[in-house]
Amino acid sequence: MIKYLKHHEIDKQRWDDCINHSANGLIYALSWYLDVVCPDWEALIKDDYQYVFPLTPGKKYGIGYLYQPYFAQQLGVFSVHPIHAVITGMFISAIPKKYRLVEINLNESQGILTENPVWDTNDKKMRFIQNLNLKLSLDQSYEELLSRYSQNTKRNLKKARESKVSIVNTTPVTEIIEMFRQHRGKDIEKMNDQAYAILQSLATECNRRGCLRILGAMADGKLCAGVVFVSWHQHHILLFSAVNTQARHNGAMSLLVDSFIKEHAESDGILDFEGSNDANLARFYRSFGSAENFYDSLRINHLPFIVKAGLFLLRKK
Questions:
Q1: pLDDT at residue 310 above 90?
Q2: pLDDT of amino acid 191
Q3: How many Å separate Cα 73 from the centre of its chain?
Q4: 139: alpha, beta or left, given left = phi > 0 and alpha = psi -120 to 50?
Q5: Residue 34, pLDDT score
Q6: Alpha-helix runs per DSSP H in 123-275
């Protein structure tokens, strides 16, 4: 039986024990991480915290819905036991009906439900969308990893060295956020003040817990690029990055990623590049020899037609 728990009913110690011992555990699903990105998160629990599924509720125009929080790419089912599509289907069916609109991401271990016939649904208002993620295994020597870089990335590294770009480890996250806001952030509608505030809080909490790493690139004595990494159980996630106009020409971002790879080569780690649905970012991440992984987004829309039409018009404004 799957139980639905409100936030105050969740035993966070037992929750985190499950995530910590799950083969598919992710930092995004730890209770303290969820507390930052979605403070009122709820849960579905099965077999006394052997299986867990975070619910991330919001409300807009009086309508309750589930959404994917900022900076938490994948959630879904986590368990100390193997997970298959039937289990995932049970949890999806157990989502409280009060959430008429669901737009969430599952994790890679759920199986690709867009292609998996094991679990089927007659709900025509439910659909799965396949997403791309790129990861790099760091279990080889730096020389072996470097040999798999694209020629363009190798040229960018040479350009960065010739431009005398240097790497620093003490860059405040606020400087990287501000750089992003002034450049690429201006063209991304969903990146708003709330998103930046969550990132700031998340960086503070990750730093307190010893799982934050920020690298900055300096050129001509000024910061021109920066990357925010979060690490947990040798899973290193490139969570956020920013470049200015100068860095688009001096190879600084390539040097930042290469520096992290060099530092963690010959480990059991994985570098997770995250936001790979963007074609330009995917091209850049592939240039380091990363491999493709896939996960599904779940979309359920049981809103009345008149409400759907109203939300569509509001989104267009």
A1: no
A2: 83
A3: 3
A4: alpha
A5: 98
A6: 142-146, 151-162, 173-182, 193-208, 247-250, 252-264
